[in-house]
Amino acid sequence: MTAHSRAQEQPDPTAAAATAAAGEETGPTPELVIISGMSGAGRSTAAKCLEDLGWFVVDNLPPSLIPTMVDLGARSQGNVARIAVVVDVRGRSFFDSLRESLADLDTKSVTRRIVFLEASDNALVQRFESVRRPHPLQGDGRIVDGIAAERDLLRELRGDADLVIDTSNLNVHELRAKMDAQFTSGDEPELRATVMSFGYKYGLPVDADHVVDCRFLPNPHWVPELRPFTGTSEEVAGYVFNQPGAKEFLERYADLLHLVAAGYRREGKRYVTIAVGCTGGKHRSVAVSERLAKVLAAEGIETVVVHRDMGRE
Questions:
Q1: Which residues are within 8 A (CB) of 79 and not within 5 positions of it... i.e. 6 or more apart?
Q2: In angstroms, rounded to a whole number, what is the distance separating the alpha carbons of residues 272 and 191?
Q3: Is the distance from CB of 148 to CB of 137 less than 8 angstroms?
Q4: 277 with 214: CB under 8 angstroms?
Q5: DSSP helix/strand/coil, 195
Q6: Is the dihedral of CA 143, 149, 152, 154 positive or negative?
Q7: Which one of 150, 178, 270, 285 has the largest count of C-beta atoms within 10 Å of its C-beta?
Q8: pTM score
Q9: Would you give the end-to-end CA distance of the chain in angstroms?
Q10: Coil vs helix vs strand at 197
Q11: Secondary structure class of 303 (helix, strand, coil)
Q12: What string of DSSP letters covers 7-60?
């Protein structure tokens, strides 16, 4: 087990154990984030980001020890208020105990979230080949065999995740920006949204909660003077929203999201990813994403805009 946290910045959990042995009262229960996902999808980067935000981060902790870690944090007199645990497939025999540990935490009313890092098979293969390392589950087979085995093992956990981040087309800095947007401390908003433009010809984002199709609008690509620009330009945005039905579509979809957001708040869901697509992810989806993000922000929803495929052409 390896702790990412710097000794001079993070409390020592053994000190919490000593406090418990001395009979000190239990303090507030720490907030818990469990980081998991596909090998090569960016778990270490996500963990490092939380560490930089002041979380106490523990890498490769056996799942059966997660409740113990939370108890130690509660006995630290508030010194360990936020704990992040990286759980990966290397745990093998320990991994099956994760669900039991999660059930134990639920009985104690621990505030916990699961962050799942995802990536396409092609992206994962390229990453493993670039570092010339085998996949931890490939054995005598190929990298793709290990990826398939890991996906099968993690399928149920992915379904339970509170936040799924697809890193297929993200660099390290973009992943850190996403984590920063979701976990930066301060006055915590009730709901955070990521509005992501994308191109259908590059595939659907796997981490989308909602998908919006803008292909019913005329494509600025076929207007020669607009083709070089993107949806972030006033020229393209003006063209898109001057089309019949464009403004009405945005207004009605914003009303729908207002209804959905209220339900998310009631259910305690704090993150939502809205994917807005057009053919290439350059014009219509970008313009609509920018405008939709402004509408959501006006509703009090903290919003981040990501243009996944802009610039790929």
A1: 11, 16
A2: 8
A3: no
A4: yes
A5: strand
A6: negative
A7: 285
A8: 0.59
A9: 44
A10: strand
A11: strand
A12: TTTS--HHHHHHHHHTTPPP-PPPEEEEEEE-TTSSHHHHHHHHHHTT-EEEES
